[in-house]
Amino acid sequence: MTDTHPLNTEISARAREIRTDGYAMSIGELLSLYKDGDIEIHPEFQRIFRWKDEQRTRLIESILLGIPIPPIFVSQRQDGIWDVIDGVQRLSTIFEFAGVYRDENDAIQDGLILGEGEYLKSLKGYMYEPNSNSEGLKHFDEALRRDFKRSKIAFSIVTKESDPDAKYDLFQRLNSGSVLSPQEARNCLMVMLNRQYFLDVAAMSESVDFKDCVPLTDRKEESAYRSELVLRFFCLLDYTGSPTDLSRDFGDYLTDWMRKATANESRPDQKLFYDTFELLNRTLNEDTFKRYNGHRHLGAFSISGFEFIACGVAKNIDKWRDHQDDLKERLRSAWTAPDFKANSGAGVSPRQRMPRFAIYGPKFFGE
């Protein structure tokens, strides 16, 4: 007979850490909660979750027809406010349609104008109710607005008695394999963990010197890759381990590091970041992270070059600040440095490369 006692014990212990409750709420109640500030949908997420107009129309159509929609996952904070973990676009669409949605600057947005529905072709051009900018547009009558407000939305609630990390773990599980890029998911976590840290990272990712040094493809730009590079920069600087392989995938390592780095309202060292990329931009501009063949820089942005060089220069910023010509030669010689060549290129994964470059980069630029 199989002994399942250890498994039963483990399940019981973990289940106590995550306390959940289920609740069905009318849209009218939901609108009141939102207006009173009792539910936090993190408008910064709107940069990340990109719904098209037809998706938003489809949601409103589903509500009108009584077609079930997935539950909204929220976490109850200690102050009683609900933090949305999954369902931001569904809620923001409802709020925008009702004309109460506030953006990240706390400005109320114009009400959503619907498109043609899959089943309700006549939805096209409708608004929830008239406003000062809706002259000539169609809007729901009072009876239809009442029906809409009485429609129910299912909520799954992670209660405040749960482990503090439960909502972040749940967010990662719910969004694993989603349309979000790994960094877009991290950005959402950052907003929930430490909004100011997220704003700092966003500002650094858009700085002129950084963008000049790091030319990216449109696809990389759209996947929040710049924000990932900012996090990699600080993750490398923070590494204190040995030059051996990480024990897990680098993406998971970076996410775990970010969760620790954003704790206790901490903030990244923005001055060091800006100083580093101002110096690099002044020295080699867009060639900073492009491979050098002894005569000229070739190819596209190199992530290996970024990790080795950015970390190495940042750790030795005072040494190079006033020696731009010498730095240019050192930057170009980095591509043939034994420690760089041995730990970059095909077949070397980030989990192998990162811990080595966190040590070898500063060593090379400190010599």
TrEMBL record:
Task: Tell me the InterPro entries matching this sequence.
Answer: GmrSD_N
Q: Which residue numbers delimit the GmrSD restriction endonucleases N-terminal domain?
A: 28-189
Q: What is this protein called?
A: DUF262 domain-containing protein
